[in-house]
Design goal:
heterotrimer; A alpha+beta (475); B alpha+beta (470); C alpha+beta (249); B: 470 residues; 2 domains; six-stranded mixed β-barrel; C: outer membrane lipoprotein receptor (LolB), chain A; 47% strand
Chain lengths: 475, 470, 249
Amino acid sequence: MITKTAWKNVWRNKIRSFVVVASVTVGIFAGVFAVGVMNGAVDQRVDEVLDNEVSHIQITHPDFRTNNDLKFRIDNVDELEKQISGIEGVDAVCDRLFVVGMANTARKSVGVNIIGVDPEKEKEIFGLYKELEPGTGEYFSDPEREELAYIGFDLAKNLNIIRYQINDEIIEELRSAELPEDILSGISEFDGERFDNEMSFKKAMRTVMTAKQESEYGRLILEKAQTFRERAKFTLTFVNSSNHQTGGVFRVGGIYNIPNSMFESSQVFVRDNILRRLIEFPQNTAHQIVIRLNDVDDTRAMTKKLREDFPELEVLNWKQIQPDMAMMSDFAGVMYGFFMVIILAALAFGIVNTMLMVVLERTKELGMLTAIGMNKKKVFRMIMTESVFLSLTGGVAGMVVSWIIIRITSTQGINFGSMEEGFEAMGFSAHIYPDIGVDFFLIVTLLIIITGVLSSVYPALKALKLDPAEALRTE
Amino acid sequence: MKNYKMAWRNLWRNKRRTIITASSVFFAVFFALVMRSLQLGTYDSMYKNVIESYSGYIQVQDEEFWENKIVDNVFKNTEELQEKIKEVRNVEDVIPRFESFALASSGSRSKGVLVMGIDPQKEKLLSDVEDKLVEYRLTDDAINAIKSEDIPDYLAKNMDLFAGNSYSSDGRLQIDLGIKESDAESLMPIIEKYASIDNGYFNMGDNAALVGDRLSRYLGLERGDTIILIGQAYHGYTAAGKYVVEGIVTIPNPDIDNKIVYLPVDVCQNLYYANGMLTSMVVHLRDNDDDAIDNTMERLDSKLESPYRVLGWKEMNKTLVQQLEADDKSGIIMIGILYLVIAFGVFGTVLMMTAERRREFGVLIAIGMQKTKMAGVMVYEMLYIGLLGILAGVAVALPSIIYGYHHPIHFPSKFAKIWEEYGFEPVMAFQWIDKYFLSQSLVVAIIVLVAVIYPVVKIRKLKEVNALKA
Amino acid sequence: MKKKLLTIVLFSFYCLFLTAQDATEIIKKANDKINGEESSFSIMKMTIIRPEWERTLEFKNWTKGTDYALTLITSPARDKGQSFLKRSTEMWSWNPTISRLIKLPPSMMSQGWMGSDYTNDDILKESSVVEDYIHEITGEDEIEGRLCYRIKMTAKEEAAVIWGHQVRWIDKDDYLFLKAELYDEDGYLVRTELGKNIETMDGRLIPTIMEIIPEDEEGYKTIVEIEEIEFNIPVEDGFFSQQNLKRVR
């Protein structure tokens, strides 16, 4: 009986019902979205490092980290990899050779880390192949061309492989980017001249514009003026396993660009077979075994297991290899947690308030009911039942809405590209990809529904205390 | 009667209703202010910690140094230069640095290292190297010795897990080994007895070096041993020097820990035949909020000319800036969500309030009140409620934030162990009262104003007959 | 008619072949002149010129074949007593200030030996002007009053050389390397090397002054002068040892 009445009541006053349902829906959406954003933001900064630079776990010879000497290698790599990939939770495994050497061009010599990889296997673990700077080539596309290497943008600059030149085409492009004419005519003085490095180009620029102009347009001009020769030649020199200086000629197959400048200016990727030949290493050996897990949260447990399985090798996870990252992500996790608490608190208060108002609005009606003899307990139950109906409805609606929005934003990302100011942007469009696990989703939803129901308890109790006579007289 | 008077009377006629509506605004303001303060304060402290520990906010360098960090691109550190810089408002001090590369050798092994010449006292304001001197080292010998004493099982187990690690403070050691508060008093003396190592710092002019922990182990160096540095000096001379290892430091970043050597800056200048010259000078500021930094930079920029160059922290920490931006954006989303929540809180309340008063409106119109007048009164009512709520919100938020400012929320150490290693305090800080107070209040005011639209519209559409039936 | 055409074609190929051969032969001869000596002892002076400063070093140099070399710096006072040993591709150095022997990794010389324009590449001389290039005579020029072959050397595809191509002038009479222009892959001139002051020393005609001029930097130059030189001195392999680095005077 009560249920029926409750149900009727719900439909009788559409506005009131709507308000309650909407509060719960919005609450769920807010909660879910907040958690999603929190995860997305925390994951994002860590992801970049994991995907491009470190991955989850690395195994090396115990002496390899302190001294990257060639001889500290791992043998029986194939067997080890087989064993590891059999472990549950492991997504992919690959191995690499690591040689410290020099990269040389006609103008510059720079110390680098030469990493010999199997490109196909690498792609399963690292996303570095996606960071290819458009127009600079490809990521190891041609197995026949062994001498092709994949180098970082900053390294290309340091080796003077990236040069700077102004020509008519570039001036036109700058014109359409609305650069003032006086600057354009200034830089056109350098038409045809080639600058081998950033410094000399900047110096030349400074002779034709003021410091203010340079800080405003300098970056754009620099970007447009960048040129390089495809498949540019350079040599890599290093010491091989017989302790002799050796090396080979390589060509730039593709250039990658990531935010981490230190990584970019030192890591050179080449095919493992050519490196193996040059350092005179046998098959089935490597310096690093890299493991990608299905779930990054398994890292700790997996590290422990691998340490037990391979006590003679050094097993490190990304938090140990890049403690800065770990620091940031740990902290961010707690920080966002706090914010979540605040949002939920605000939510709870909001719902309570709304409920209070709802009940207040019904003072007369409730007074009437008690006056005609309805048991106070029954009135209470009626209010609570209505509350439950509405909260559940809000709950379902909230789940649907937030599910859709999360789905959309987690693939598209929330793009702030248009909000980025000036030319300070380093080509980093801050996409936030909200992400939420099913468990969190359900927990948040449940929490909010319960809040909705509970928050009507106080007002309902208050309503009962009303004197029916007084209540009837309310307007 | 004037609208505003009527509105005021209406408010107090039904106290309960007024209070409920006003509290929705109150909560809105309170939460918005607290959250924003926490956000801004926390981001700030997080990033300031990182910046202050290495690059500092502003540096002066030779104009060619940043792009080409070779020893030839040093600048003369003259009295005149220092005075010029210190004269600028907000500049507290200048901290000299000489950074270069060398080959370090201990006889049996050699390795390419980063040489950092520092002012032993002034550097404490920046990377505080002294704080990172190793106090304890869990060598195999030390562990075995400790195990020979009467210690709890968990300690023995944990020591094995962390064998080989070095610690620069009690706190970090205790966290790693999971030493309980209650056990600390009894266990620490044992650990000190076997695992503590003798360490020291240096002064200007000392022919001494501080070596990174991992580097010292690779080169097989202990306190008192000699380290050789050889490299290329200014103008192509050969830089070569012998130094006594005075102390071993542990730097959280392993990539740096395994190749860093500190020298007193004057000794370092000597090594590179660059007496009186520096690779960079960090400008230590009194006030380090964003505007102050920018203004100081501008002033320095106009005072110093070629060959000097003024660099700001943003330029020197590009990755950090990106992280900041990303954080800021997710922060804005979080605040946006909060607004959504509080807006609904306000709307919901106003909606219900309007519904509750339908009869009242109907009656008033029936007896002849103009709809416009009623709407006008409504607007005033909402304005009062809004004002009330905002004032109450600010009144409560102010002391809360002030308290929070002086008592930042400390993290449980477990979460922020690595934070501690860097020497940062893991806290969530509150931002002091600032522009955001105004902007947040404004947003809430706007929400209230938008909320007014509903009742006003409702009034206009009201059909007295239906309203009376309510 | 066809026969005639064929003959002409074949003949031209033959001539081309001959010239190519000749070009390589010429380079080989010139190279042998420098590197063909069994051993040598020389006293040299190196001046490093930069826009803002100038520095002069004096040193004694012993070589045996192409694999062994030992250098002792005799002036200025700051650098005096430093010695360097090259054994095939390894470099060692003795420094009297710190009384230590150190093995030098290539990265130590990325800025040039002792701050000069002599790069790691130059010192280790890993690439071969003969083996790693395709040679072609492109003409004749007069350098230092002598008539020289002008030979264009294009780097072979697989050769581990950093240059795109080189142009070298070799004296027709005595096969001396008198000038070299080193170009990058894009054909931009990176470095010029000059041989001057051709004199007879120890019975050989050699350029006694060598200049290295990097093209990119204004006012950069390194000048090496041979003050004395003796060829085919009696010297044991054992002379080129780490122990000797400390002892050599």
